[in-house]
Write a structure and sequence with these properties.
The complex is a heterotrimer. By secondary structure, chain A is mainly alpha-helical. Chain A folds into two domains: 5-181, no CATH class; 185-429, Orthogonal Bundle (MetI-like fold). In chain A, 72% of the residues lie in helices and 2% in strands. By secondary structure, chain B is α/β, with parallel strands linked by helices. In chain B, helix 3 (75-92) links the parallel strand 1 (68-73) and strand 2. In chain B, helix 9 (219-228) packs across helix 11 (249-260). In chain C, 74% of the residues lie in helices and 0% in strands. Chain C has 13 helices and no strands. The two termini of chain C are 40 Å apart. In chain C, 51% of the residues are buried. The chains are: A mainly alpha, B alpha/beta, C mainly alpha. Chains in contact: A-B, A-C, B-C. Chains A and B meet through helix 3, strand 1, strand 2, helix 4 and helix 5 of A and helix 1, helix 19 and helix 20 of B.
Chain lengths: 436, 442, 274
């Protein structure tokens, strides 16, 4: 038996594509060689600089000098640009290394096959194989690559910011950002006014997420069940009417609510005073405002659950109810033992996703109350601010990027852990291989 | 297994094109900074520039070869800018593109788009944004036209456009607020707060939304109460961040008077928005409103109104307003610094300032223009011009930004819940200080 | 009629009123004379068509351009995003490969990071690609985001299609590609409609990301333009906004009502196996 494997492995280790060439797979060899060439060119010209930039975050900030009478800007390093460029570079390196690994592995496997007397594929064969054995990888490549660049890379960036001093007034381009390790985490706990706000806002966020999810679920289910009752006419009309809040853009509906609920000038309170009641401080009193945002959120969110539950209800076999009726069970009893468990069972994963998305429900708070009413002892936060809207105020309004980053890491750890634990409990995760 | 790679191959090829793109953008960056450097060098080549008179100076400056500029402007200023740009093109042969950006947003946009080299070359900022952008080296100082600008502009406007002793801005307009009054409801504008209170007692009718006077509760408008008895925002004329005077005895005394005014304006702070105030005033429900020149356009034709200076306090002292100065600034990332400086300077000439007044109703910061009979005798603006004599520029140190959130909260508490003024202001100052120390210590 | 039914009708009517009133209110405001949303009476005293006329004729705002931009971005995002979701979810649902469970978990977790924290990084990334102030930047970001947030619902849908179906085809010699394009895609019509509707809606109304990326008025989308109208401290064009908002809402509303059935099917299938 002729040994091909060591040579092929060694050659492809030396330069991508050499192993394939040795295996006489010319098309593939050429492609790999091109990637290697591009990679070398890039490493030689840019990699070292990018990585150094990520490590140092720049050496000289952009300055201004006076020459004679005229001020001239002196170009310097922009720490944040360097950081992102460095990250992009690292991701490319990772991909390059992965391709390199595949190249070696491919050369070796083909060579081993040759040892067994199996002839290597031609280029056409390679392509054909692509559509079969490696089909999942092929169709995953594009979504995953985009997600890697547009979602994963930015998240890594956001996490890294937590370990820097990137916050006003230390902002590029005039200042350099530095790595500061865990300082900001410690600071958050130590600073009186910050930690008080953090505690208050976090508590309300949890309460909000729980209540907001439960109310939408409750109302959505009740409405679906009501419409689904036998003997109710115009089912389609009711359902269509209930979809309206889901379909009207948040931007519009929340602005409407803000105006409707104005304590002094809103139509709702005007109506209440006209019928002899007192106006209610819908958005002005912290407790009322919290109740109001939950109610408004129910308005916005219940149609989704209603649609979902309506769908599930139609899948419940009629005979289950008929059997219950024969046994003399009350309607309510039938609902409790048949309908409810089925709904809960089927919607459990959505329940978790809803909880997570309410936890980070930016739009409702930002557009309805802007986090107000004002709480005198909070820093940059108001009575209805969730962690996520507080974060937004910190980053985009007040440029406190590192604090915001620390906070989002904390939120993320909590939400992700809860979600993963729950998700692992769901049927779809545990049993998915049994379903087919 | 071997063909699994092809999927990744596509990814890798994509990455290669990414690299190419990165390379490109860097190159352009380098190129533009090169031009900037040469341009700067040629401008400073005339060694005696600083000794020459301002007029000659202006003639020395030429726009760079092939210069093309971009300017940010908002809707109200747009007509003026458009007409002035035509003259600019005729005089200097430089094309200027307009992008519409609301003035309050221009500062934050410059922060992101400046370094990305996507921002306008010339933009307009209210003076309280200056310090933050100047510290970040995002603006070019007004160096070539320094003498000329100083000579032709009102002193307060120059001060407000200067940071750390360096003049950055090309001031265009000064503004402050005054007492807008509906002539049908108020025969003669009240001279004192006592008169306002007396009028309110006869006029107010909350059930049908009739109020004698409204204003928005924030540090900008409420500062008149703080300064009445000698209180202040920041010490040393608004420059000493370590000395916040908001909870001093004198400020507290003034704010107690402010708290007492709730009897004539029984509306919670957050219910009264700018939108509602405008609607109530133009529909003749609100008789007077403390507002600024930016509102004039939307009231014209809807309501017969005049503007008077703010009412004086019971002890006869006038109400001091805060003033704002809006100036043109040059983006430090501009590829054509000379052309951009020329444009900014051109827009603030007397003729253009008067044109801006005609088209957008601004009060010019240009000395000659503001002394022009056209403005002095304008029936509506003259009240603001009068009030300007009793105004102080809003403090422009970066720490000012840390004051808005805590004071908004404090005014809401004082007004809505009738809380103790001293305690509330103490708390507000404390949290402002916390903010400053937490941001400064990093 | 049974009392139970009467009670049901009452509850449904009250609910419907509370749903319709806010919607009706913005429609009424859009016909109200003047600039302010505030009206003393429940029904405005004077009505006018001017705000709608202004939308199409005014040079102050480029409403028509915004509309065209938004339609372009939303349609292309829906197409590209649906394609990505389709590819990704099918692979995740139908194949067992190394790193799959890890990938699923990763996708779940990626949903939970507050997305605007990433804005700074995405801005710089797009700058490197020369994509700022371009609609393609929006389309790319919306589609890739859509893949991550919808992959679970879509995967859940594929989990409900019996394995035996494609295995039979495979035994008959069809390649994966054939099975995917000829059998699976036609079967997933409801799910695809649902996903594209959701992506379309998201792209149609986003103003936070689009506001950062789009620089010039001729590139702006509806949501950005409208948001900027009301977001000023000194905003006064509220009735103009209302008219713009009504026209903003109509396409989405029509799509949702028209495609209601797909919505129910898509969501249900996705959720039940999630």
């Amino acid at each position: 038996m002729t040994r091909y494997a060591p040579q092929a492995t060694l050659l492809s280790l030396l330069f991508m594509g050499l192993g394939q060439g040795y295996n006489r797979q010319w098309g593939k060899a050429l492609l790999f060689a091109l990637i290697e060439a591009a990679g070398i060119y890039w490493i030689a010209t840019r990699l070292a600089k990018s990585v150094k930039g990520l490590y140092t975050l720049g050496v000289t900030p952009r300055g201004m000098v006076k020459v004679g009478k005229v001020y001239k800007p002196v170009e310097g390093d922009h720490s944040i640009f360097l950081m992102v460029e460095g990250l992009i570079a690292l991701i490319i390196v990772a991909l390059f290394v992965y391709v390199y690994y595949l190249n070696i592995r491919d050369a070796r496997l083909t060579a081993l096959n040759r040892e067994k007397g199996i002839a290597p594929h031609g280029f056409a064969g390679t392509l054909a194989n692509l559509a079969n054995r490696n089909f999942p990888y092929m169709i995953l490549a594009i979504p995953v690559a985009t997600a890697l660049m547009l979602t994963v890379m930015p998240i890594i960036f956001s996490v890294l910011v937590a370990f820097t001093d990137f916050a006003a007034p230390n902002l590029p381009p005039a200042k350099l950002v530095h790595w500061v390790g865990f300082d900001i985490f410690g600071k958050l706990v130590r600073l009186g006014s910050w930690s008080k706000t953090l505690y208050g806002v976090a508590l309300w966020t949890v309460v909000w997420a729980a209540l907001a999810t439960m109310t939408t679920y409750l109302i959505g289910t009740v409405v679906a069940v009501l419409i689904q009752q036998r003997g109710i006419r115009l089912k389609r009309f009711w359902r269509t009417a209930m979809i309206i809040p889901f379909a009207v853009p948040n931007l519009v509906s929340l602005l409407v609510f803000r105006n409707l609920l104005n304590e002094e000038f809103g139509p709702v309170n005007q109506f209440l005073t006209r019928i002899g009641l007192h106006g209610i401080p819908w958005l002005n009193d912290p407790t009322w405002a919290r109740a109001t945002v939950i109610v408004v959120n129910t308005w916005l969110g219940f149609p989704l659950i209603m649609i979902l539950v309506s769908g599930i209800l139609t899948t419940i076999p009629r005979d289950l109810y008929e059997a219950a009726e024969v046994d003399g069970a009350s309607r309510f009893y039938a609902f409790r033992v048949i309908t409810l468990p089925l709904i809960l069972y089927a919607t459990a994963p959505i329940f978790i996703m809803q909880f997570a998305s309410n936890f980070n429900n930016f739009n409702v708070i930002y557009l309805l109350t802007g986090g107000n009413p004002i709480m005198p002892d909070y820093v940059y936060a108001g009575g209805t601010d969730l962690l996520v809207t507080w974060l937004y105020k910190l980053t985009l309004t007040n440029n406190q990027y590192n604090f915001a980053s620390v906070l989002s890491i904390l939120i993320f750890v909590v939400v992700a852990t809860v979600s993963i634990l729950n998700y692992r409990q769901t049927r779809s995760f545990r049993e998915e291989d049994l379903i087919q | 297994m071997m063909t699994k790679k092809l999927g990744w191959l596509a990814v890798a090829t994509m990455m290669v094109s990414v690299l190419a793109a990165c390379g490109n953008s860097n190159n352009t960056g380098g190129a533009s900074s090169d031009t900037a450097a040469t341009a700067g060098a040629s401008a400073s080549a005339s060694p005696s520039a600083s000794n020459e008179s301002a007029a000659q100076d202006t003639e020395d400056v030429k726009p760079e070869e092939g210069a093309k500029l971009k300017i940010w402007t908002d809707k109200t200023e747009r007509t003026f800018i458009e007409s002035a740009l035509a003259d600019f093109k005729q005089q200097y042969g430089v094309d200027v593109a307009i992008e519409e950006v609301n003035i309050p947003n221009q500062a934050e946009k410059l922060e992101t788009d400046g370094p990305a080299k996507l921002a306008a070359d010339v933009l307009m900022l209210p003076h309280d944004k200056l310090s933050k952008l100047a510290v970040a080296n995002l603006l070019l100082p007004n160096d070539l036209f320094e003498e000329e600008t100083k000579a032709k502009t009102l002193e307060t406007a120059i001060e407000a456009s200067t940071y750390n002793g360096i003049l950055y801005g090309y001031p265009q307009t000064i503004e402050t607020y005054g007492l807008f009054y509906n002539k049908a409801l108020v025969k003669e504008a009240p001279k004192t707060w006592d008169e306002v209170i007396a009028f309110a007692k006869t006029y107010n009718d909350p059930a049908s939304k009739k109020y004698a006077i409204t204003w928005l509760h924030n540090l900008y408008f409420n500062s008149m109460f703080i300064t009445w008895k000698g209180g202040y925002i920041f010490g040393k004329d608004g420059t000493d961040a370590a000395d916040i005077g908001l909870n001093g005895d004198m400020a507290v005394e003034g704010l107690k008077y402010y708290q007492g005014l709730k009897q004539i304006m029984p509306i919670k702070t957050s219910d009264l928005t700018f939108d509602i105030q405008a609607e109530l005033f133009s529909s003749g429900k609100v008789a007077m409103s403390i507002d600024g020149p930016w509102s004039i356009a939307s009231y014209k034709g809807k309501v017969d109104f005049g503007i008077a200076p703010l009412p004086a306090f019971p002890d006869g002292k006038p109400s001091m307003s805060l003033s704002g100065v809006r100036s043109f600034y040059v983006n430090s990332y501009t590829a054509y610094p000379n052309a951009a400086k020329l444009l900014a300077n051109f827009l603030t000439s007397k003729e253009n300032a008067l044109k801006d007044f005609e088209l957008a109703g601004i009060i010019p910061a240009n000395k000659e223009a503001s002394a022009d009979p056209l403005i002095q005798n304008d029936p509506i603006l003259s009240g603001i011009v009068e009030q300007f004599k009793n105004s102080k520029p809003m403090p422009s140190i970066p720490e000012m930004n840390s004051l808005y959130a805590p004071t908004d909260a404090a005014f809401a508490t004082i007004w809505n819940t009738n809380a103790d003024v001293k305690a509330t202001m103490d708390k507000a100052v404390q949290s402002a200080k916390d903010l400053m120390s937490s941001t400064a210590s990093q | 009629m049974k009392p139970r039914h009467i009670a049901t009708y009452i509850v449904l009517t009250v609910l419907t009123l509370s749903i319709v009133y806010p919607a009706l209110w913005i429609v009424m405001s859009s016909f109200k004379a003047g600039n302010s949303l505030y009206s003393e009476t429940l029904i405005p005293r004077a009505f006018t068509f001017d705000h709608y006329k202004e939308l199409f004729t005014s040079t102050r705002y480029q409403y028509v351009t915004w509309y065209a931009n938004t339609a372009k971005v939303a349609v292309l995002s829906a197409l590209l995003g649906t394609l990505m979701t389709l590819l990704g979810s099918y692979a995740m649902a139908r194949f067992r490969f190394a790193g799959r469970k890890f990938g699923l978990m990763g996708l779940l977790v990626l949903n939970m990071f507050p997305s605007f924290m990433s804005l700074v990084a995405i801005y710089i990334l797009l700058l490197q690609f020369n994509l700022l102030n371009s609609h393609w930047a929006l389309i790319l970001v919306y589609s890739s985001g859509a893949f991550i947030s919808n992959v679970f619902v879509a995967k859940g849908f594929y989990d409900t299609i019996p394995r035996s179906l494609d295995e039979a085809a495979r035994v008959d010699g069809a390649s994966h590609w054939i099975v995917f394009t000829r059998i699976m895609i036609p079967l997933s019509k409801q799910m695809l409609t649902y996903v594209s509707l959701i992506i379309f809606n998201g792209a149609w109304v986003d103003f936070i990301f689009a506001r950062l990326i789009l620089k010039t008025a001729d590139k702006e989308t509806l949501a950005v333009g409208l948001y900027d109208i009301v977001n000023q401290q000194t905003s006064t064009d509220f009735t103009f906004f209302a008219a713009g908002a009504v026209l903003l809402s109509i396409p989405v509303l029509v799509l949702f009502i028209w495609l209601q059935r797909f919505l129910v099917d898509g969501l249900t299938a996705g959720a039940s196996k999630g």
